[in-house]
From TrEMBL:
The chain crosses the membrane at residues 47-64, 76-96, 117-136, 148-166. It is a multi-pass membrane protein. It is found in: Membrane. Keywords: Membrane, Transmembrane, Transmembrane helix, Transport. This is Slc35b2 protein. It comes from Symbiodinium pilosum. It comes from the Eukaryota. Its main location: membrane. GO terms for molecular function: 3'-phosphoadenosine 5'-phosphosulfate transmembrane transporter activity. Signal peptide: none annotated. GO terms for cellular component: endoplasmic reticulum membrane; Golgi membrane.
Length: 196
């Protein structure tokens, strides 16, 4: 679901404005809260909780919309397809941390969950390259760029650490708190990336 969410989100930018993608991705806290209550990961939230989450999402979305661009879509059916892709992406974004929390409550540790997530990611990535027929292009490119031999493992270790921290946060604080922290992280990243 994590990989489908990212793929659908990226695909949507062919049909809708980038700013709309930002708004949708920033609003994943709301479906996470709804799904959390439905799956029994937390009690149902009060209206004030949803209003606070909405303000957090809207604030992040508005702050990040500065780099938007015009849509590539030329007809209504493309826009509808992009909106459906974004909607599914948000649902997956809400499901993933809730399912992770449920899995860890059954006795799976965050390290085991991280290892499983990364193994699925590795297999999916390899399968994607093999099925696309681009394996030789990848090998050729790697031959011209030898620094990939240390860059790719370094990125892998960094991402593994990131996934471990996130799954540990899901295990200790819950799915909703984890997504709220992730949303605040995006806001902090945007603030830090601003130039004078």
């Amino acid at each position: 679901m994590r990989f489908l969410s990212n793929t659908l989100s990226q695909y949507s930018t062919h049909s809708v404005e980038f700013s709309l993608k930002i708004v949708a991705k920033a609003s994943k806290l709301l479906p996470t809260m709804l799904i959390s209550g439905l799956l029994g990961n937390s009690s149902h939230f009060e209206a004030l909780d949803y209003v606070a989450a909405l303000f957090l999402c809207v604030g992040t979305a508005l702050f990040s919309c500065g780099g938007s661009r015009a849509p590539n879509a030329t007809n209504t059916s493309q826009v509808v397809l992009g909106m459906v892709a974004l909607g599914l992406s948000c649902i997956f974004d809400g499901l993933v941390p809730n399912l992770q929390q449920k899995i860890m409550r059954s006795g799976v540790t965050s390290a085991e969950l991280m290892a499983r997530t990364n193994a699925i990611g590795l297999l999916t990535g390899l399968a994607g390259v093999l099925l696309s027929g681009d394996m030789m292009s990848v090998v050729e490119y790697a031959g011209h760029e030898p620094q990939l031999l240390w860059l790719i493992p370094a990125i892998g270790v960094s991402l593994a650490g990131s996934v471990l921290c996130y799954t540990e946060l899901v295990a200790s604080a819950g799915s909703v708190a984890s997504v709220a922290v992730a949303t605040l992280r995006k806001t902090a990243s945007l603030l830090l990336s601003q130039r004078d």
